[in-house]
Sequence to fold (211 residues):
Amino acid sequence: MPVKLFLIDDHALFREGLATVLEGKGGFTVLGKADSVRSALDALPGIYPDLILLDVDLGNGRALEFLRKAREQQLNAPVLIVTAGVSDFEAMQLVHAGVRGIFHKHNPPDALCEAIRKVAAGDVVMEPGYLRGLFAAVDPAAVDTRPRLTDRELSVLRLILQGLANKEIADHLGISESSVKAVLRGLFEKLNARTRSQLVKIVLDQYRDQL
Fold:
């Protein structure tokens, strides 16, 4: 099956030329094109591309604005940035906003085709020049090394902190008491706690920000 694409670039010559090149290569179908954030948001609902190719500078808008508004509209297609260049800081912002890759326009068409296939298949493609900036932006002290707690585990813990027994927790959450016990067993193992009181202490010490 061809990779279905949607192109967003405010330069008509590049946008139309890219569509022609990609469809001429075979294996790609361009479902639509847009020259601005607004026109893209208007055109995308109901199209469902496999991948969006997005320029950073859209004249009267920026890629970050599109990404934010697309998320609000629940437009969840993967995004590959195709740009003439972007600052390290904005590259970091784009990665945090969920883009699956950043690709330079000066690369040859075959390289772009390969990048598209990789991102459409679930991989990440990043220009090497941005990697140093992305790694430098990571604050080791800010990395959360705590075991991740699920929403169900947090719900149970909040009720435990209110002093509820297992049966009361089950009634409150609309689940069986055995399910509550299963959640607690998982918490004991995950947080290396042996007793209920020890579990409460660990949670208050380490997860107060999530409660």
Observations:
- The first helix runs from residue 12 to 25.
- The two ends are 46 Å apart (CA to CA).
- The domain at 151-210 is CATH 1.10.10.10 (Arc Repressor Mutant, subunit A).
- The beta strands are 3-8, 28-34, 51-54, 79-83, 101-104, 125-126.
